[in-house]
Amino acid sequence: MTIETTLRPAVRRDPLLRLLALARPLRGRLILAVLAGATTTAAGIALLAVSGYLIARAAQHPNVTALAVAVVAVRALGIGRGVFRYAERLIAHDAAFRVLADVRVRVYRKLERLVPLRDLRSGDLLARLVSDVDATQDLFVRGIVPPAAAALAGGGAVAVCAAILVPGGAALAAGLLLAGVAVPLLSAGIARRAGRETAASRARLTTQVVDLLEGSAELRAYGAVGAALDGVHRTDADLTEHARRSALARAAGAGLGALLAGLTVWAVLLLGVLAVEPRVPLAVLVLTALAAFEAVSPLPAAAAQVSEAGAAAARITGVLDTPEPVPAPARPAPPPEAPVTVRLRGARVTYGPVRALDGVDLDLTPGRRVAVVGPSGAGKSTLAAVLLRFADLDAGTATLNGVDLAAYDPDDVRRVIGGCPQDPYVFDTTIRENLRLARPAATDGELRAAALDARLLEWIESLPLGWDTPVGAHGEAISGGERQRLALARALLADPAVLILDEPTVHLDEPTRRALTADLLSATRGRTTLLITHDRAGLDEVDEIVVLDAGRVAERTVPARAPR
Amino acid sequence: MKPFDPRLPRYATAARAHLVLTVALGLVTTGLVLAQAGLLAHVLAGHGAVAATLAALLAVVAGRALAAYGGEASALRAAALVRSQLRRRLIARAVERPGRAAGEVATLATRGLDALDAYFARYLPQLVLACLTPLAVLAVAAGVDPLSALVIAVTLPLIPIFMVLVGLQTQARTERQWLLLERLGGHFLDVVEGLPTLKVFNRAKAQAAIIRDITAAHRRATMRTLRVAFLSALVLELLSTLAVALVAVEVGLRLLSGGLPYEKALFVLLLAPEAYLPLRNVGAQYHAGMEGVTAAQRVLDLIEAPEPLGARRRPAAAPATGEDAPAALADGGAIRGAASGTGTGGAASAAPSGGGTTGGAAIRLDGVTVRHPDRDAPALDDVSLTVEPGERLVVTGPSGAGKSTLLAVLLGFVRPESGSTSFETIPEDEWLRRIAWVPQHPHLFAGTVADNIRLGNPDASPDAVRDAARLAGAAEFVAALPDGYGTDVGERGLRLSSGQRQRIALARAFLRDAPILLLDEPTAHLDDENARVVRHAVERLMAGRTVVLVTHDAAWTAAADRVTGLTAGRLREMEPA
């Protein structure tokens, strides 16, 4: 079951429907949850109706046996209501989680092909996407199951009332539809509008708080703290005002719901009395109508949930529909084998109107080490992206062992060209697992050797938990220098034929930077290496220094090298 | 953890009236529900004037709708007021005590407070109503049918008792699961954020299966927790519905024997659920309540965090104790001189003159020691330093030597642990008005280029801003921006390069036109071209001012009257280049 089989590719359906289509394999479980939910609500309605029947009938002083069934039914309904509620919640949560696994994998597979797309670089955006994906759980538990269950139970109540008195059933149907459809839609509309207004104010507040805290020293030094705090208070007042208006609107929804329920019961009562119904059916009719509104009470919240989920679904399907930046060739060339030679001739990459790389030549022959230097924005990382097959050339050629780089499967290219990307990510696990990521089959000896080359071994062994030390989310439990060295050790462990180190010393202070540069130059001796850095210092040992500026080679020098 | 935090009421003062109103309207609703039950029973029993009863019923319906509207509005209003109060306190606190990541504070101040809505608008009023409503219903029931009232009175306390028993059983299990759930829940985000790295190592595709497995493990763990957690809801539901069923059967059997009139029986049947309803509502809102308290605790913990050592605003006067006292007193004389001497400097800087005024008095540090929390070695160790008016002092040293701390002391941002300064008795605003400071990584504020240059002089004329930019070497690139000085620099000034940000910070300092200039690594992290432009601007800015420039870059010593080395928090004089 995939999107492709449920949708003809040409037709782009509503994102929410596409998301719901993903739940099709779990149809059985969801139907079960809806049935359990409907039974719960129906039991609640029936409890009051049967109790009413019991009392009205008892008032006629019949034989006790005439009431036996009703007495048993009342008890059974009392128990059934709790048990079915329990079952409904468990089944719905379980099904929602199963759908979530499917959505996560689907989104991940797509992201895996998209990354590193420039639009997806921002961590905030990814975090948003992940929370969108996780929000699909709520869609099923709170947005889909309750309305379906309410429709079933409400329909049942209407049927019972109509069986007693047709106009009574019709009145109840009208009341339930208004309270169960119109009021929730109104609530959802209000929630959407409030959400838009609030989002803008929140964004402003976030910017102001960032300025206030990250710029606090400057605000203080320049006597501008008061003005900045005034700005925050103004935004806070806006937020409170939005909240006040949306509170009044939501309250109107609640009042309207109560009014509809009350009027409907009143109308049913009036119709029943006018029809001169005998006591017993009249009691059952009115009490059923009274209890039936229990079915619609969760619906305004459900409508708001669905409306929120719609926005999340749109963002998810937006990612799923994004074209792949570097598609794999249909018939890839046979995987390249070491030793590896990479040549770029006149390489050009454009991002929109900007030429990130513009006519760059580069030769990486076995054992040769090239440093690429330049200010930020000079095209250094784009160069790395081209070699790692994260970006395609717009002009010029890139060859690997004489074959066009684009002819290979990108994964095969990354088997021989690898290393340490800019801003290497450290996963929320142990040091060992973070390192083994590069080579899952690595032995402890190989791990130690890589750590030693990155000058990390001594530090690891000094830790109380050693190799099993957790590094924390985003590696925040270890220092920036340790993170960079961990990334370097990972690259050395992977030991690709061509090693790319993208800004391995960025964000470090001067002494640490110098030490790490020296260490990595000694660790890469004899390896084919592309070292990307903004800092020319300490590069005497490489074979060639290429200075990039605005995507062009500004200078090529062969440094007065130390003896090799 | 309990779904109540005793600290919360103190921060919810603004909402007290609204909360009281919410509860009052809740009680009114209960009263109207009981009235409705009585009127319904009356009509269903076929007694008396149906038309009058129906009219009364209509009034009750209208009353309920109004009460529902008012209750909801005041409940949500209360929540909004509490959020605003906490938000302002939180942000004010974060400003007073730096060190929290701005993003974290911003998230807490916006989405982090959302969970409080359910807490204040739903859980808290329901909690109060759960104590009051059953008693009111019980009183009415006792007046109608004492035996039914007795059944309700006996079954009602069973609910809290069983809830506590179930809660005790499940709490330990739930808490054990919580950490595991959090870890499993965070896995997907961790993998997605690390995708580029995974891809470089060709590990990305293999992760899809792992995501499926971990999500399945997360599901199993969550379901284990939920099976237990939902038990309390099950018990609640069972007890309350069975209690109502018990009343129904009891009433029905007594009707049968003729011991109870029909109308009374119907009334009791309709009012009995109302006794249990508030308890069920509290149960239904329990998770919302817990989430609200958890969210509130995160905020309150930040608001009430204990005072960190060091890194604090200096008080009006530094404490002088023990053997430091004579030095402080001796310095006191110098301070008075400094204060009167700089009076003219302050006046001059209030009316910008395009540079050229000096501080008028020497800046002195005497045996200043600063220690950062959690560090054993002092950041500054017994530093004594005098900068004469108009003198240009360059302090060199490696990263971590204490250079930035020295500037923080000179700014008055950091209070020395011991030692004294010549400016410690001058009020902070007055002292800072004499200083222009260019930090190592200047922060640009969301807003226009002109707003950023005007930071210290919000009323400066456009011409003054332009002059400052020209002197800072920023005029050219600003002119090339789409809207010139009106261009929005983006959050954190990210639309500009680091060299451009540095030049805007210098323009700020030119416009500030203060007699004392403090500079922190003005050309570090800049490429050669940017460094050259910034260097020229800094040299222009230094002219005629008292300057302290800290840097690891030895090239700056050429611009100095005097050079001092700083290593591991200790000063040593050096020859100027």
Automatic annotation (TrEMBL), chain A:
Keywords: ATP-binding, Membrane, Nucleotide-binding, Transmembrane, Transmembrane helix
Subcellular compartments: Cell membrane
SMART domains hit by this protein: AAA
Keyword ATP-binding: yes
Domain ABC transmembrane type-1: 31-311
Membrane protein topology class: Multi-pass membrane protein
InterPro entries xref list: AAA+_ATPase (IPR003593), ABC1_TM_dom (IPR011527), ABC1_TM_sf (IPR036640), ABC_CydC/D (IPR014223), ABC_transporter-like_ATP-bd (IPR003439), ABC_transporter-like_CS (IPR017871), P-loop_NTPase (IPR027417), Type_1_exporter (IPR039421)
Ranges of residues in domain ABC transporter: 342-564
Keyword Transcription attributed: no
TM ranges: 30-56, 62-84, 144-165, 171-191, 254-276
PANTHER family referenced in this protein's UniProt entry, alphabetically: ATP-BINDING CASSETTE SUB-FAMILY B (PTHR24221), ATP-BINDING CASSETTE SUB-FAMILY B MEMBER 6 (PTHR24221:SF654)
Protein name (record): Thiol reductant ABC exporter subunit CydC
Native species: Actinoallomurus spadix
Automatic annotation (TrEMBL), chain B:
Start and end residues of each stretch annotated as Disordered: 340-362
Domain of life of the source: Bacteria
Principal location: membrane
UniProt lineage: Bacteria, Bacillati, Actinomycetota, Actinomycetes, Streptosporangiales
Domain annotation ABC transporter: ranges: 363-577
Name this protein carries in UniProt: Thiol reductant ABC exporter subunit CydD
Residue ranges of domain ABC transmembrane type-1 in the record: 20-291
PROSITE patterns in the cross-refs: ABC_TM1F, ABC_TRANSPORTER_1, ABC_TRANSPORTER_2
Keywords of this entry: ATP-binding, Membrane, Nucleotide-binding, Transmembrane, Transmembrane helix
Subcellular location field: Cell membrane
